[in-house]
Design brief:
Length: 293
Amino acid sequence: MFYHKQALQYRATPEKPDAVYARKLQEVIGGQYGEITVAMQYSFQAWNAHIPGKYRDLLFSTAAEEFGHVEMLATMVAQLLEKAPHGITDDAVQNDPTVAAVVGGMDVQDAILAGAGARPVDSNGNPWNAGYVTASGNLLADFTSNINAEMQGRIAVARLYHQTDDPGVRDLLSFLLARDTHHQNQWLAAARELQESGVEQLPVPSNFPIKKEHREFSYQAINFSDGGSMAEGSWASGPSPDGLGEFTYVDTPMEGVPMPPPTHPDARFYGTTEVPNTVEKAAGALQDKLHKE
């Protein structure tokens, strides 16, 4: 059951309108690593969780918090757009709000479709995409994905912080940065606890029979680049993080194996009664057909 309380988690009031910055702020609402993404991601991870208890409760709690972050940012965007100048002063253009909005750098659809309000889109107006959501049913894989989501989201908020001097906007962003700090540490702690408690281990999924791998390749750091420093990393020698092997470094990739021969094209596509037995004949048959047509 969802129940909405008409109060914000934290203050969301700008000092003055700014339509251009409102467009920028859309990125952390409806962008790939925005608040809609993490709210939906944590929700679906909770709904897909196979075990009850603290991990599922953590997901539900964080998902609810993130929906509140969407609300705060949407409220901020609406206020930034309210009575906002279009960003230019030329009267001939200023009198046409749509043209002024384009020239000024704001998103015209904020005014046309949302009535000077926020939308579930990114800073370029692209609609939020459910493909951004990761919810695999494997908690260690999901928590690791959540770490990345929070890191990427915090990067965006930090950059936006330096693109405004509005104290009200900065105040909200400071709050969001602090919560992102907690969530990064939270998911790191949860992922570590999963492994320490034996619920899930590396490599994910740990219940796949590891003997079915070609184990001679499982811990090879193979250099596929002409760079000369890859061997200096801890991934090139020493014990692997899963504790099941030792890294080795291979400076030159294996030679590889011959490619299989190309499959025969479908004769019906080329309009011939005989299937060409080579790529050259197939191309010739198609060229002849196109020339006749």
